[in-house]
Amino acid sequence: MDRTTLGRNILPLERDGLIEIAPAASDRRAKKIRLTTAGDKRLGLARTGWQRAQAQFEADFSPDRAAELRALLRAVVAMETTPAQFAERS
Hints:
mainly alpha; two-stranded antiparallel sheet; 2 strands; 68% helix
């Protein structure tokens, strides 16, 4: 992710008090990002919701089929194909 995109994505988190951004001690040009207490609570709620959604997906889709899907998705992610190469195959 480039620096501009990263900056745009983290500014709302800082605005909402979920993270704190400070200069790094070793290099003042670098930034250190820390999860706040509010951010940690929000992350916990998100994790709980994600786990609930995953459990519901497995119940509806079946644990075996869900495992097959995850294996297939891992294989897709592991492919060493650039977007241009993918477009050439289409």
